[in-house]
Amino acid sequence: MIYLDNNATTPLDPGAQEKMSHFLREHFGNPSSLYPIGRAVKEIVTETREVIAKAIGATRTEIIFTGSGTEADNFAIRGVLDAFPEKDEFITSEIEHPAVIETARYLEKKGIKVTYVPVDQYGTIDLGFLSNAITPKTALISIMHANNEIGTIQPIESVVKIAREKGVLVHTDAVQSFGKIDVDVKKLDVNLLSISSHKIYGPKGIGALYIRKGTNIKPLIYGGHQEREMRAGTENTIGIVGFGEAVRVLMERGSKDKKRIEKLAEQLKKGIEETIPKVKLNGHDKNRVKGTLSFCFPGLEAEAILLALATKEICVSTGSACAEGTEDVSYVLSAIGLKPEIARSTIRFSVGRFNTEEDIQIVLKELPEIVKNLREISALDIDE
Predict the structure, then answer these.
(1) Are both 233 and 306 inside the same structural domain?
(2) Which of 146, 167, 241, 276 could be a cystine partner for 177, CB 3.0 to 4.6 Å?
(3) C-alpha to C-alpha distance for 293 and 268, rounded to whole angstroms
(4) Are 105 and 138 part of one and the same domain?
Protein backbone atom coordinates (compact mmCIF):
# COMPACT_ATOMS: atom_id res chain seq x y z
CA MET A 1 0.00 0.00 0.00
CA ILE A 2 1.14 3.52 -0.84
CA TYR A 3 -0.25 5.96 1.68
CA LEU A 4 -0.38 9.61 0.56
CA ASP A 5 -3.04 10.98 2.90
CA ASN A 6 -0.84 12.04 5.79
CA ASN A 7 -2.83 15.24 6.34
CA ALA A 8 -5.78 13.06 7.36
CA THR A 9 -3.73 11.01 9.80
CA THR A 10 -0.26 9.52 10.04
CA PRO A 11 0.93 5.98 10.82
CA LEU A 12 2.00 5.46 14.42
CA ASP A 13 5.76 5.87 14.82
CA PRO A 14 7.41 2.62 16.03
CA GLY A 15 9.07 4.50 18.89
CA ALA A 16 5.73 5.85 20.09
CA GLN A 17 4.18 2.40 19.79
CA GLU A 18 6.94 0.83 21.88
CA LYS A 19 6.76 3.57 24.51
CA MET A 20 2.99 3.12 24.79
CA SER A 21 3.31 -0.67 25.04
CA HIS A 22 5.85 -0.36 27.85
CA PHE A 23 3.63 2.16 29.65
CA LEU A 24 0.60 -0.12 29.39
CA ARG A 25 2.59 -2.99 30.87
CA GLU A 26 4.19 -1.05 33.71
CA HIS A 27 1.85 1.80 34.69
CA PHE A 28 -1.84 1.83 35.43
CA GLY A 29 -2.06 4.33 38.30
CA ASN A 30 -4.25 7.40 38.28
CA PRO A 31 -2.00 10.49 38.18
CA SER A 32 -4.30 12.22 40.67
CA SER A 33 -3.62 9.54 43.30
CA LEU A 34 -1.17 10.30 46.13
CA TYR A 35 0.38 6.84 46.53
CA PRO A 36 3.55 5.83 44.61
CA ILE A 37 2.02 4.20 41.52
CA GLY A 38 -0.11 7.31 40.96
CA ARG A 39 2.75 9.72 41.57
CA ALA A 40 4.93 7.77 39.11
CA VAL A 41 2.36 8.28 36.37
CA LYS A 42 1.96 11.95 37.27
CA GLU A 43 5.72 12.39 36.94
CA ILE A 44 5.68 10.79 33.47
CA VAL A 45 2.81 13.08 32.40
CA THR A 46 4.72 16.12 33.70
CA GLU A 47 7.87 15.09 31.83
CA THR A 48 5.84 14.59 28.64
CA ARG A 49 4.21 18.00 29.04
CA GLU A 50 7.70 19.48 29.28
CA VAL A 51 8.77 17.77 26.03
CA ILE A 52 5.75 19.10 24.12
CA ALA A 53 6.08 22.58 25.60
CA LYS A 54 9.75 22.78 24.66
CA ALA A 55 8.96 21.77 21.07
CA ILE A 56 6.82 24.89 20.55
CA GLY A 57 8.78 27.29 22.76
CA ALA A 58 6.30 27.26 25.65
CA THR A 59 6.53 26.39 29.33
CA ARG A 60 4.87 23.22 30.62
CA THR A 61 2.29 25.15 32.66
CA GLU A 62 1.04 26.65 29.39
CA ILE A 63 0.15 23.23 27.90
CA ILE A 64 -3.31 21.72 28.49
CA PHE A 65 -3.94 18.22 27.13
CA THR A 66 -7.18 17.75 25.18
CA GLY A 67 -8.92 14.87 23.44
CA SER A 68 -8.05 16.13 19.94
CA GLY A 69 -7.13 19.16 17.85
CA THR A 70 -10.86 19.77 17.40
CA GLU A 71 -11.37 19.92 21.14
CA ALA A 72 -8.41 22.28 21.47
CA ASP A 73 -9.96 24.61 18.88
CA ASN A 74 -13.34 24.51 20.62
CA PHE A 75 -11.69 25.09 24.00
CA ALA A 76 -9.78 28.13 22.75
CA ILE A 77 -12.70 29.80 20.99
CA ARG A 78 -15.54 29.07 23.39
CA GLY A 79 -13.31 29.52 26.43
CA VAL A 80 -12.30 33.04 25.42
CA LEU A 81 -15.84 34.06 24.41
CA ASP A 82 -17.12 32.80 27.78
CA ALA A 83 -14.39 34.77 29.56
CA PHE A 84 -15.47 38.03 27.92
CA PRO A 85 -19.29 38.08 28.04
CA GLU A 86 -19.27 41.82 27.34
CA LYS A 87 -17.63 41.14 23.95
CA ASP A 88 -19.86 39.39 21.44
CA GLU A 89 -17.81 39.40 18.24
CA PHE A 90 -15.49 36.75 16.81
CA ILE A 91 -13.31 36.86 13.68
CA THR A 92 -12.07 33.89 11.69
CA SER A 93 -11.34 33.07 8.03
CA GLU A 94 -13.41 31.49 5.28
CA ILE A 95 -11.06 28.50 4.99
CA GLU A 96 -10.65 27.28 8.56
CA HIS A 97 -10.88 23.61 9.52
CA PRO A 98 -14.44 22.40 10.30
CA ALA A 99 -13.46 22.42 14.00
CA VAL A 100 -13.39 26.22 13.81
CA ILE A 101 -16.04 26.81 11.12
CA GLU A 102 -18.66 24.72 12.92
CA THR A 103 -17.82 26.34 16.24
CA ALA A 104 -18.32 29.72 14.58
CA ARG A 105 -21.73 28.61 13.32
CA TYR A 106 -22.64 27.45 16.81
CA LEU A 107 -21.65 30.87 18.18
CA GLU A 108 -23.79 32.62 15.58
CA LYS A 109 -26.80 30.67 16.82
CA LYS A 110 -25.98 31.93 20.32
CA GLY A 111 -26.06 35.55 19.14
CA ILE A 112 -22.34 36.09 18.59
CA LYS A 113 -21.44 38.17 15.53
CA VAL A 114 -18.94 36.19 13.44
CA THR A 115 -16.92 37.83 10.67
CA TYR A 116 -15.31 35.57 8.06
CA VAL A 117 -12.16 37.04 6.51
CA PRO A 118 -11.95 36.31 2.76
CA VAL A 119 -8.88 34.90 1.03
CA ASP A 120 -7.26 35.48 -2.34
CA GLN A 121 -6.83 32.89 -5.12
CA TYR A 122 -3.91 31.35 -3.23
CA GLY A 123 -5.80 31.02 0.05
CA THR A 124 -4.04 33.89 1.84
CA ILE A 125 -6.23 36.01 4.11
CA ASP A 126 -6.98 39.69 3.40
CA LEU A 127 -5.17 41.54 6.21
CA GLY A 128 -6.84 44.85 5.34
CA PHE A 129 -10.29 43.29 5.68
CA LEU A 130 -9.22 41.72 8.98
CA SER A 131 -8.01 45.03 10.39
CA ASN A 132 -11.23 46.82 9.41
CA ALA A 133 -13.37 44.03 10.92
CA ILE A 134 -12.01 44.49 14.45
CA THR A 135 -14.20 46.51 16.81
CA PRO A 136 -14.13 47.17 20.58
CA LYS A 137 -16.56 44.22 20.87
CA THR A 138 -14.15 41.71 19.27
CA ALA A 139 -13.11 39.06 21.78
CA LEU A 140 -10.93 36.79 19.65
CA ILE A 141 -9.39 36.26 16.22
CA SER A 142 -8.78 32.64 15.12
CA ILE A 143 -6.73 32.12 11.94
CA MET A 144 -5.17 28.75 11.08
CA HIS A 145 -1.39 28.56 10.63
CA ALA A 146 -1.50 26.30 7.55
CA ASN A 147 -4.51 25.09 5.61
CA ASN A 148 -5.27 21.38 5.73
CA GLU A 149 -6.56 21.16 2.14
CA ILE A 150 -4.24 23.39 0.10
CA GLY A 151 -1.29 23.91 2.46
CA THR A 152 -1.17 27.72 2.28
CA ILE A 153 0.60 29.28 5.26
CA GLN A 154 -1.06 32.33 6.81
CA PRO A 155 0.82 35.47 7.98
CA ILE A 156 0.09 34.86 11.67
CA GLU A 157 2.74 37.33 12.86
CA SER A 158 0.98 40.08 10.88
CA VAL A 159 -2.40 39.00 12.27
CA VAL A 160 -1.02 39.25 15.81
CA LYS A 161 0.49 42.68 15.15
CA ILE A 162 -2.88 44.00 13.96
CA ALA A 163 -4.70 42.38 16.87
CA ARG A 164 -2.25 43.66 19.52
CA GLU A 165 -2.74 47.25 18.39
CA LYS A 166 -6.46 46.82 19.09
CA GLY A 167 -6.21 44.73 22.25
CA VAL A 168 -7.63 41.51 20.78
CA LEU A 169 -6.53 37.95 21.59
CA VAL A 170 -5.34 35.60 18.82
CA HIS A 171 -5.69 31.82 18.47
CA THR A 172 -4.14 29.75 15.68
CA ASP A 173 -4.90 26.18 14.69
CA ALA A 174 -1.41 24.73 14.10
CA VAL A 175 -2.56 21.12 13.68
CA GLN A 176 -1.36 20.98 10.06
CA SER A 177 1.79 23.06 10.53
CA PHE A 178 3.31 21.55 13.68
CA GLY A 179 6.05 19.15 12.65
CA LYS A 180 6.12 20.44 9.06
CA ILE A 181 7.26 24.04 9.46
CA ASP A 182 8.62 26.04 12.39
CA VAL A 183 6.02 26.49 15.12
CA ASP A 184 7.30 28.71 17.93
CA VAL A 185 4.75 30.44 20.15
CA LYS A 186 7.24 33.16 21.04
CA LYS A 187 7.86 34.05 17.39
CA LEU A 188 4.19 33.78 16.46
CA ASP A 189 3.28 35.69 19.65
CA VAL A 190 -0.20 34.13 19.77
CA ASN A 191 -2.28 33.75 22.92
CA LEU A 192 -3.54 30.26 22.08
CA LEU A 193 -2.39 27.50 19.73
CA SER A 194 -3.81 24.04 18.95
CA ILE A 195 -1.83 20.92 18.03
CA SER A 196 -2.73 17.24 17.58
CA SER A 197 -0.86 13.97 18.08
CA HIS A 198 -2.10 11.88 15.17
CA LYS A 199 -0.82 14.36 12.57
CA ILE A 200 2.77 13.83 13.76
CA TYR A 201 2.91 10.00 13.94
CA GLY A 202 1.43 9.80 17.44
CA PRO A 203 -1.81 8.14 18.62
CA LYS A 204 -5.31 9.43 17.94
CA GLY A 205 -7.50 10.83 20.71
CA ILE A 206 -4.97 13.25 22.19
CA GLY A 207 -4.16 16.87 21.42
CA ALA A 208 -3.03 19.96 23.26
CA LEU A 209 -3.86 23.63 23.64
CA TYR A 210 -1.16 26.17 24.38
CA ILE A 211 -2.58 28.92 26.59
CA ARG A 212 -0.19 31.81 27.04
CA LYS A 213 0.37 32.70 30.68
CA GLY A 214 -2.07 35.42 31.73
CA THR A 215 -4.64 34.69 29.00
CA ASN A 216 -8.20 34.94 30.31
CA ILE A 217 -10.08 31.78 29.36
CA LYS A 218 -12.84 29.68 30.91
CA PRO A 219 -12.71 25.86 31.16
CA LEU A 220 -14.47 23.82 28.49
CA ILE A 221 -15.07 20.81 30.77
CA TYR A 222 -15.90 21.15 34.47
CA GLY A 223 -15.28 18.51 37.11
CA GLY A 224 -12.07 17.52 38.89
CA HIS A 225 -8.79 19.35 39.32
CA GLN A 226 -6.97 17.88 36.33
CA GLU A 227 -5.10 20.10 33.86
CA ARG A 228 -5.00 23.04 36.28
CA GLU A 229 -8.82 22.83 36.52
CA MET A 230 -9.05 23.85 32.86
CA ARG A 231 -9.97 20.43 31.45
CA ALA A 232 -11.51 18.07 33.98
CA GLY A 233 -11.43 14.30 33.64
CA THR A 234 -8.81 11.63 34.27
CA GLU A 235 -5.99 12.17 31.83
CA ASN A 236 -5.56 9.97 28.77
CA THR A 237 -2.16 8.89 30.07
CA ILE A 238 -1.44 6.33 27.35
CA GLY A 239 -2.24 8.91 24.68
CA ILE A 240 -0.12 11.54 26.42
CA VAL A 241 2.87 9.17 26.54
CA GLY A 242 2.53 8.34 22.84
CA PHE A 243 2.11 12.01 21.94
CA GLY A 244 5.22 12.92 23.89
CA GLU A 245 7.33 10.23 22.24
CA ALA A 246 6.07 11.28 18.79
CA VAL A 247 7.15 14.84 19.59
CA ARG A 248 10.55 13.67 20.85
CA VAL A 249 11.14 11.69 17.64
CA LEU A 250 9.93 14.68 15.62
CA MET A 251 12.43 16.99 17.29
CA GLU A 252 15.19 14.46 16.77
CA ARG A 253 14.43 13.86 13.09
CA GLY A 254 12.97 17.30 12.30
CA SER A 255 15.09 18.87 9.56
CA LYS A 256 16.08 15.52 8.02
CA ASP A 257 12.45 14.46 7.62
CA LYS A 258 11.41 17.88 6.35
CA LYS A 259 14.02 17.94 3.58
CA ARG A 260 13.22 14.41 2.44
CA ILE A 261 9.44 14.95 2.46
CA GLU A 262 9.76 18.21 0.55
CA LYS A 263 12.03 16.55 -2.02
CA LEU A 264 9.55 13.70 -2.57
CA ALA A 265 6.63 16.13 -2.81
CA GLU A 266 8.50 18.23 -5.37
CA GLN A 267 9.17 15.10 -7.45
CA LEU A 268 5.47 14.26 -7.32
CA LYS A 269 4.43 17.82 -8.19
CA LYS A 270 6.83 18.06 -11.10
CA GLY A 271 5.88 14.61 -12.39
CA ILE A 272 2.14 15.35 -12.33
CA GLU A 273 2.59 18.70 -14.09
CA GLU A 274 4.85 17.17 -16.76
CA THR A 275 2.84 14.04 -17.53
CA ILE A 276 -0.80 15.10 -17.17
CA PRO A 277 -2.29 17.87 -19.37
CA LYS A 278 -4.29 20.75 -17.92
CA VAL A 279 -3.74 20.15 -14.21
CA LYS A 280 -3.70 23.00 -11.70
CA LEU A 281 -2.04 23.23 -8.28
CA ASN A 282 -4.25 24.85 -5.65
CA GLY A 283 -2.87 27.14 -2.98
CA HIS A 284 0.31 29.18 -2.89
CA ASP A 285 3.15 27.77 -4.97
CA LYS A 286 5.86 28.82 -2.50
CA ASN A 287 4.27 29.95 0.79
CA ARG A 288 2.75 26.61 1.74
CA VAL A 289 3.49 23.36 3.54
CA LYS A 290 5.42 21.66 0.75
CA GLY A 291 4.23 18.14 1.54
CA THR A 292 0.62 19.11 0.73
CA LEU A 293 -0.31 19.00 -2.96
CA SER A 294 -3.87 19.83 -4.00
CA PHE A 295 -4.38 19.31 -7.75
CA CYS A 296 -7.40 19.91 -9.98
CA PHE A 297 -7.95 17.46 -12.84
CA PRO A 298 -10.47 19.28 -15.08
CA GLY A 299 -12.96 17.08 -16.87
CA LEU A 300 -13.10 14.50 -14.08
CA GLU A 301 -14.81 13.81 -10.77
CA ALA A 302 -12.24 13.44 -8.00
CA GLU A 303 -13.95 10.36 -6.58
CA ALA A 304 -13.40 8.48 -9.84
CA ILE A 305 -9.66 9.17 -9.62
CA LEU A 306 -9.58 8.29 -5.92
CA LEU A 307 -11.34 4.96 -6.47
CA ALA A 308 -9.15 4.09 -9.47
CA LEU A 309 -6.03 4.79 -7.41
CA ALA A 310 -7.46 2.71 -4.56
CA THR A 311 -7.58 -0.34 -6.87
CA LYS A 312 -3.81 0.12 -7.19
CA GLU A 313 -3.55 0.34 -3.37
CA ILE A 314 -2.71 4.05 -3.53
CA CYS A 315 -4.45 6.10 -0.83
CA VAL A 316 -5.21 9.79 -1.44
CA SER A 317 -8.14 12.06 -0.59
CA THR A 318 -10.42 14.68 -2.10
CA GLY A 319 -9.72 17.16 0.72
CA SER A 320 -10.35 17.39 4.44
CA ALA A 321 -10.90 14.00 6.08
CA CYS A 322 -13.41 15.74 8.37
CA ALA A 323 -15.56 16.57 5.32
CA GLU A 324 -15.17 13.35 3.30
CA GLY A 325 -18.45 11.69 2.40
CA THR A 326 -20.34 14.95 1.91
CA GLU A 327 -21.69 15.96 -1.49
CA ASP A 328 -20.97 19.64 -1.02
CA VAL A 329 -18.13 21.34 -2.87
CA SER A 330 -15.21 22.11 -0.56
CA TYR A 331 -15.77 25.56 0.96
CA VAL A 332 -12.00 26.04 0.94
CA LEU A 333 -11.82 25.56 -2.83
CA SER A 334 -14.90 27.76 -3.33
CA ALA A 335 -13.27 30.48 -1.22
CA ILE A 336 -10.22 30.59 -3.50
CA GLY A 337 -12.50 31.09 -6.49
CA LEU A 338 -12.75 27.64 -8.09
CA LYS A 339 -15.90 26.82 -10.05
CA PRO A 340 -17.83 23.89 -8.56
CA GLU A 341 -17.00 21.56 -11.48
CA ILE A 342 -13.28 22.31 -11.07
CA ALA A 343 -13.38 22.00 -7.30
CA ARG A 344 -15.00 18.57 -7.66
CA SER A 345 -12.02 17.42 -9.70
CA THR A 346 -9.56 18.02 -6.86
CA ILE A 347 -7.31 15.38 -5.33
CA ARG A 348 -5.07 16.04 -2.31
CA PHE A 349 -1.77 14.22 -1.97
CA SER A 350 0.01 14.62 1.37
CA VAL A 351 3.50 13.15 1.69
CA GLY A 352 4.82 11.85 5.01
CA ARG A 353 7.78 10.36 6.86
CA PHE A 354 7.27 6.79 5.70
CA ASN A 355 6.89 7.53 1.99
CA THR A 356 9.69 6.54 -0.35
CA GLU A 357 10.96 7.55 -3.76
CA GLU A 358 9.61 4.25 -5.08
CA ASP A 359 6.13 5.28 -3.87
CA ILE A 360 6.33 8.48 -5.89
CA GLN A 361 7.53 6.68 -9.00
CA ILE A 362 4.68 4.17 -8.80
CA VAL A 363 2.10 6.96 -8.44
CA LEU A 364 3.62 8.79 -11.41
CA LYS A 365 3.39 5.59 -13.42
CA GLU A 366 -0.25 4.84 -12.55
CA LEU A 367 -1.86 8.28 -12.25
CA PRO A 368 -1.34 9.64 -15.81
CA GLU A 369 -2.84 6.47 -17.31
CA ILE A 370 -5.80 6.61 -14.91
CA VAL A 371 -6.50 10.26 -15.75
CA LYS A 372 -6.14 9.60 -19.49
CA ASN A 373 -8.55 6.66 -19.41
CA LEU A 374 -11.11 8.47 -17.26
CA ARG A 375 -11.03 11.55 -19.46
CA GLU A 376 -11.70 9.43 -22.54
CA ILE A 377 -14.98 8.23 -21.04
CA SER A 378 -15.93 11.40 -19.17
CA ALA A 379 -18.84 13.55 -20.33
CA LEU A 380 -17.36 16.59 -18.60
CA ASP A 381 -15.55 19.33 -20.50
CA ILE A 382 -11.81 19.36 -19.80
CA ASP A 383 -11.72 23.10 -20.59
CA GLU A 384 -14.31 24.08 -17.96
Answers:
(1) no
(2) 146
(3) 9
(4) yes
Q: Do the domain assignments include residue 382?
A: no
322 catalytic residue (yes or no): yes
If asked whether residues 193 and 294 sit together in one domain, one would say: no
Residues 244 and 307 in one domain: no
Give tens-digit pLDDT for 192-249: 999 999 999 999 999 999 999 999 999 999 999 999 999 999 999 999 999 999 999 9
pLDDT tens-digit series, residues 86-97? 999 999 999 999
Q: What is the CATH number of the domain that holds 55?
A: 3.40.640.10
Closest CA to 319 of 331, 308, 336: 331
Q: How far apart are CA 49 and CA 43, in angstroms?
A: 10
Q: What is the three-class DSSP state of 61?
A: helix
pLDDT of residue 375 exceeding 90: yes
Q: Which of 322, 329, 362, 374 is catalytic?
A: 322
Least confident window among 32-41, 122-131, 308-317, 358-367 = 32-41
Residues 25 and 53 in one domain: yes
Domain that holds residue 271: 2-8+254-377
pTM, two decimals, is: 0.95
